[in-house]
Amino acid sequence: MSGERRRRVAEEIQRFVSQRLNSELRDYPVGFSTVTGVDISPDLKSARVFVTVYGGDEAKRKQAIANLNRAAGHFRHEIGQALKLRHTPTVQFEVDESIERADRIEHLIREIHEEEAERPAPTADDEARTDEPE
Questions:
Q1: What mean pLDDT, rounded, does the chain reach?
Q2: Please, what are the domains in the chain?
Q3: What is the pLDDT of residues 18-43, one digit of tens each?
């Protein structure tokens, strides 16, 4: 199976689910959610859909993902009709933590820069002491 075909099918699934994510799930509240990526198996039989759920605490995010996974059969059926694949992949929703991870890293870098800005600049005496062998 070519990597190009996998990529195109993953993009189509992402586009399809993104368009229907918040509009079709009135019975399964998911809050404000965005599909950030799709990873599809080489045989196109299973797809992991990565979702970012904005707002709320960790419990609400887990509940949103559980609601999405309850609706996975509905999405699979709709994907099969829309994309006309020989075998429609099973769909599993997972939390995409990359945005949170990036925010955390950015916060840590900002803290380091703030600490460096507060630290006094080294004097000529300090630099001379670091050049001396111990």
A1: 80
A2: 3-118 (3.30.300.20)
A3: 888 766 665 556 667 788 899 999 98
3-state secondary structure the chain: CCHHHHHHHHHHHHHHHHHHCCCCCCCCCCCEEEEEEEEECCCCCEEEEEEEEECCCHHHHHHHHHHHHHCHHHHHHHHHHHHCCCCCCEEEEEECCHHHHHHHHHHHHHHHHHHHHHCCCCCHHHHHHHHCCC
Q: In this predicted structure, what is the pLDDT of residue 46?
A: 92
Q: Which residues contact 6 (CB under 8 A, 6 or more apart)?
A: 40, 42, 44
Q: Which of 14, 52, 13 is nearest to 32 (CA)?
A: 52
pTM: 0.70
Whether 88 has a pLDDT exceeding 70, the answer reads yes
Q: What angle do CA 15, 105, 21 make, to 5 degrees?
A: 20
